[in-house]
Design brief:
CATH topology: Arp2/3 complex 21 kDa subunit ARPC3
Number of helices: 9
Number of strands: 2
Oligomer: single chain
Structural class: mainly alpha
CATH class: Mainly Alpha
Largest sheet: 2 strands, antiparallel
Strand content: under 5%
Order of helices and strands: EHHHHHEHHHH
Radius of gyration: 15 Å
Length: 169
């Protein structure tokens, strides 16, 4: 299923980039707080990435990158999660997601389940490799593929619905 929606590419010099990014940062702060109430909620649902995907896909990689960096840092400082020890890998995956989503949207000028699946699998595979290099433990690095499948599916299908029906403007 494929839908053409209005996609934007906000730049760093445009003031509208920052209020948009702020909304997605707030979403990336609220959603993890809710899902961390569930046992292994963060590891299962990967909530810190959800609004980064949407922001980068809908408003461009630059707005996505602001969201990708600010969300984990603010969550860590304000709520203690992600823990400082895992912050580098969360930031790596967040940045990879923002870049993959923004460039995919720019390249294809449409949103579809296969494109979002490609984005999510792409950032997760590259992020797992990067995490493996950073921590030196493949079993730990592959945790998202062992535990986070529901989160990845939520990113693909929830992201598709969110981009197409909740922020159609």
């Amino acid at each position: 299923m494929q839908t053409t929606v209005k996609l934007y590419a906000y730049g760093y010099s445009e003031m509208r980039t920052y209020p948009v990014a702020l909304l997605f940062v707030i979403g990336n702060m609220a959603l993890p707080q809710l899902l961390h109430l569930l046992p292994q909620g963060g590891m299962t649902w990967l909530p810190i990435y959800f609004f980064t995907l949407i922001g980068a896909y809908k408003y461009g990689w630059k707005a996505g990158l602001v969201t990708a960096i600010a969300s984990p840092l603010l969550n860590s400082v304000l709520f203690g999660m992600p823990l400082p020890a895992v912050l580098p890998t969360i930031l790596l995956k967040s940045v990879l997601l923002a870049l993959a989503a923004g460039f995919t949207a720019e390249r294809y000028q449409r949103v579809s389940i296969p494109l979002l699946l490609m984005v999510v699998l792409g950032y997760q595979l590259a992020g797992t490799l990067g995490e493996w290099i950073l921590i030196g433990n493949f079993y730990t690095a592959s945790q998202d593929f062992r535990i986070g499948i529901p989160g990845m599916l939520t990113q693909v299908f929830g992201g598709y619905l969110f981009i197409n029906y909740l922020i159609r403007k």
